[in-house]
Structures are given as C-alpha cells and as structure tokens.
C-alpha cells in the first residue's frame, strides 16, 4: 500500500485535503466518505479553508457516513450524523440533501444496514473514503476478528472502544452506546480510494501491524493491503514502529510527477 509519512497532523490534513480537492476537480459530484473523531479534523479544516478561499468548489460534492451509533435520540450532539453536519457539511457550505448515512434509530436495524449498503452502490460507490484507526487496529467499528468480507451491519463495541470514546460523552462511559451500525470491511474496500490517517505514538503499533504485518482479522485495518489503491498517511510519531519508514520516506520523496495521493 501507499504509505506517506508527514511531520505532523496538520501536514497530514493538508495533504489529504489536497487529494480531495483534486478529486472534486476531476469529479464535481464525487461521493466522499467521512470519518468522525478527532483525527480527521485537520482534513476538514484544511478543506473548508480551500472552499472558503474559492480554491475548491464543493457545491456538488456528496457526503456519506462511515458509521453511526445505535439508539441515540434524533439530534443528539454526539450522534455521528450531528457530528458530520457540524464538522463537514456546514463548514463546506453543503446542504443536508448532499448527505447520506445509516439510520441508527430505525426500528429494524438490520434492514437499515442492508438499505444503506444498497444506497451506497446505487449512488455509484464511494470515490474516496476517509478512515481513522483504533489502538486495536479497528477501522470504522470493525473490531478485531471482524470478517474481512463483512458488509454494513450492527456491531457490539468492545469495552476498550467505549473507553476511548467516553471523552466525547463527558468522560462518562455509561453514556456511550453499546452498539453501532458500521460499514463492513468489504464495504470499505469497495471504495475507489481509501485513505487512512493516523497520528500520535498511541497508534504506532496498530499502524505497523496494518502496513507491515500479515492480513489478519485480528487487525481489521490490515485488510487495506488487499486494496489496489489504499493510502496510509501517518505523522512521525505514528510511524515510529515502521521497520520500513526510511523506505516509505524515500519513495514519497522520489515519486515522479507527484500530484497528490
């Protein structure tokens, strides 16, 4: 896979925002898959700045969700729909009509999962899917030992993931839902270009296992090795356990005609 080591989170955000800008220039109605959490925020800030300056016209861009909590009331500030509206849709000047996601409050959650998987296919597929990675190597909410062929489905969160996400719920783990709807690993691999951003030393082991370890369900993100065009962008801290870090730096620096990811 393509591995790019950048100095810090801001540089990673700018680089990925440039890749998104190039995609939108080629395909104005591109379907952009977004992730939540703190890691992708530099991407959204950099992209919003490009839109505000007139460098990017995102007016026809479509946005889709990677995952959603099950059971949070409509409009809950930490539902992922609310987060995406707040951090992506509004800063880019888009309308809610441009946004599609799974229904975490549906009475029949399994039917909602299947409907969302169909909707992504009917929309022409995801052009670029942004991803983060958990300390245990999960992507989306595909926890360790998830099927590498899995589709959008309901998942039970591990205790560690609930602990990690408690910071978004006033550090109260009791407020963190136990279940989510997530794109499956197979669904994620359907995207034309998955881009994973990881920052900080706490992600270093997961990054090393994803990039240099075997493809294994115990590290769900390792499935990205199977994709013909997957990119992993990491800062120096997250790259600290990569045995081939110097090779990746040299490859990036020497890439001919470098125009983005």
From TrEMBL:
Pfam families: Glucosamine_iso
Domain Glucosamine/galactosamine-6-phosphate isomerase: 10-226
Regulation of activity: Allosterically activated by N-acetylglucosamine 6-phosphate (GlcNAc6P).
EC number: 3.5.99.6
PROSITE patterns named in the record: GLC_GALNAC_ISOMERASE
Keywords linked to the UniProt accession: Allosteric enzyme, Carbohydrate metabolism, Hydrolase, Isomerase
GO molecular function, one term: glucosamine-6-phosphate deaminase activity
GO biological process, one term: N-acetylneuraminate catabolic process
Catalytic activity from the UniProt record: alpha-D-glucosamine 6-phosphate + H2O = beta-D-fructose 6-phosphate + NH4(+)
Record-annotated site: Part of the allosteric site: 146, 153, 155-156
Active site: 67 (proton acceptor), 136 (for ring-opening step), 138 (proton acceptor), 143 (for ring-opening step)
The keyword Hydrolase is assigned to this record: yes
InterPro entries in UniProt: Glc/Gal-6P_isomerase, Glucosamine6P_isomerase, Glucosamine6P_isomerase_CS, NagB/RpiA_transferase-like
Domain of life: Bacteria
Pathway: Amino-sugar metabolism; N-acetylneuraminate degradation; D-fructose 6-phosphate from N-acetylneuraminate: step 5/5
GO cellular component: cytoplasm
Family: Belongs to the glucosamine/galactosamine-6-phosphate isomerase family. NagB subfamily.
Role noted for this protein: Catalyzes the reversible isomerization-deamination of glucosamine 6-phosphate (GlcN6P) to form fructose 6-phosphate (Fru6P) and ammonium ion.
Protein name: Glucosamine-6-phosphate deaminase
Organism: Streptomyces griseus subsp. griseus (strain JCM 4626 / CBS 651.72 / NBRC 13350 / KCC S-0626 / ISP 5235)
